[in-house]
Design a protein that fits this description.
31% of the residues lie in helices and 29% in strands. It is an alpha/beta fold and 167 residues long. It has one domain: Rossmann fold. A seven-stranded mixed sheet has the order 2-3-4-1-5-6-7, sandwiched between helices. The longest helix has 14 residues.
Length: 167
């Protein structure tokens, strides 16, 4: 089987880097740098995160995008050739949902691929659940999955759902 390129995207702080780090079976490549503007954390991805994962015999290349709008030129580069996408949103930051929706629309306009939305921080209530986020984003509930990006058994859920949608 050919490897599948999966793009992991979402707003700043949604858990993209953590997701790739948690799931990668190989040493990850990241481009973290000190944030030059107040974004709620010290480090931010400025180009990409990259890792690999073998799931049900299928090799996945995971490409995490930067979350900041000013690095959106990397979104175009990283989505080229992608066969699937996971959009992560923080369930405890509904103020980021409009940005997540814009990002999803933008990425799908560039590369129409199967996708799922992963709602992170499900282990840290109070948090919006997958059903609520699906409703807010206008997505079918089967496209939205709750997860904890720091737990491999939980973080893999959106990828399993994505593979189901792709097959």
């Amino acid at each position: 089987m050919e490897p599948l390129k999966v793009v992991v995207s979402g707003p700043v702080g949604s858990g993209k880097s953590t997701f790739v780090r948690t799931l990668s079976e190989t040493a990850i490549v990241d481009t973290d740098a000190f944030a030059s503007e107040p974004i709620g954390k010290d480090m931010t991805t400025v180009a990409l995160d990259y890792g690999t994962l073998r799931l049900d015999g299928q090799l996945l290349y995971l490409f995490g995008t930067p979350g900041q709008q000013r690095f959106d030129f990397m979104w175009d580069i990283l989505t080229e050739g992608a066969l699937g996408m996971v959009l992560l949103v923080r369930g405890d930051r509904p103020q980021d949902f409009p940005q997540a929706r814009r990002q999803l629309d933008y990425l799908l306009s560039r590369q129409a691929v199967p996708y799922v939305v992963g709602v992170t921080r499900q282990d840290k209530p109070p948090v919006w659940g997958p059903e609520e986020v699906a409703l807010y984003l206008g997505q079918p509930s089967e496209y939205v999955v709750g997860l904890n990006a720091t737990d491999p058994k939980s973080a893999v859920k959106p990828l399993l759902r994505l593979l189901e949608l792709m097959l």
